[in-house]
Design goal:
The chain is α+β, with helices and mostly antiparallel strands. 38% of the residues lie in helices and 10% in strands. The chain contains 18 helices and ten strands. Helix 14 crosses helix 15, helix 14 crosses helix 16 and helix 15 packs antiparallel against helix 16.
Length: 520
Amino acid sequence: MIVKENPQTAGIPILSRAGSRPPLRSGKGPSAGAVSLPSRTRNGGARRASQNFQNTLIALARPASSQVYEDHFVRKRLEEFLGRSLGRNLTAHYITQADNCLYQRGNLRKPTELDWFLQNEMDIARSLGDTESLLFHLDVEYVNFDIPGQAFPDPHRAFELQQPVITTIDTLLYGWGIKPLHILTGQGHHFVWRIPRVSPLAAEIASLSPAPELLEPCTERIPHEICPERDMEGQRAFGAVALLMEFVAHRVRAAAARHSSLPVEMTAVHVGPCHAGQREIISIDISEYGDPLHARMVRMPFTRYRKALAQGASLWAVPVDGMTTAQSLEIRGNGAAVADLAHRASGAIPDQTPGTERLLSAYEASALCCFHKEFYSSKHDPPSIWSQTYDRTPLDFLPHCARHILTCPNDRLLKPAGIQIVTRSLLAQGWHPRHIAGLIRSKFADSSYSWGIDWNDYEPGTRADFYVRLFAGLYATGLDQLVDMNCVSTAEKGFCFQYPGICPGLEKERHNLLSRKYPL
């Protein structure tokens, strides 16, 4: 369900934000920005005067988002991000809302309908799918499981905690020769670049696509209204891009973890309390690669960040464009400064073909690439025999937490930490990771669990493959030393479902995994 906010009331709490309208004043004498209190009048009385007064308050309090969206340069930057350049039309498959909503077919609009979003002062995202480019997207954000909106009242702390990860990303991408478009959002950073879809490099990447049997299930879900023809080649390449971005996330985590005061996790994996007494992480969020291409999107720069409105903040997504994080934080809360930034900062997603070639070479020489080949050396059992295979999986030998997640999977199996527990436990029992994914896929495909997400839009096999591959790959390459694979940590995460002392525990499973080397 999408909650539509009244654009007339959005942002009222931040009257004093720099660059916004002057604060309202009370008093007898007129002054700049002053508003006189209403008095009883003959033609309408106190009620009408009071309503007029409230309308005046709203007009002054509301952030000048309409003025930002009316700026010619802002419009130009948005079109650049949608793929427009000299002699080229908009190339994004669709645009939609970005905040507080999942992918929904009814909210998708063609890029040529950009004006509708601007007139309604919406947050805006564009599809990762593109008619002329393969997009590469890396998302980093501060996540607090105890206080989800903590990045808004204390942004400087939230972004300072991310800095070791951001510095690592800058260094790694620069080493490969990749200069992405760097966007600062409400809770983190996005890095975006592209290569031409019709190019030798794109063909080479697409040849790595790991699961051809899942291409058809993904592409048959593409909305006909947005893409009349099934984009089989786009989905094939997207599946391979996922492997490369997983490799990037591995490298970032390995280099940044020792410099970060918070756990650096891949996706939003629950952790125990940190030094501040809260469960908080820096997430390298590559979860978009666990779904079909058509179902995922990326936030556009120079657009509103409406998630912050509930915290009384009016924010914009802005390109960093050589600024420091502190400078970007200052600009993102000031509509006039955002519009001014659009006069000099590009919104175009840069073509980074040479750097991506070097990234591909590094991936192909990596231990992770070897693991991916091992992972896809097996296939899920076909659905026709699940009743004789996955549905009959004995669970008594599993730790109670993993057993409970598999028997009561909604919504525990939708959370990364739940899949992590199941993956580790079954790896310790000698399961091949692709069959772990097959088991989880069989759960996702069972409508009796009332999942609450539409598997007609998403694809259960792709989702299961992604998360199991992610967690098994961290173990196989040695990045996951399983330090939190114990009952105390599991309880702190909120994933212990048994009374203390009854569960046989996870320590034995951890010992089993650490005592043997994964066969890469």
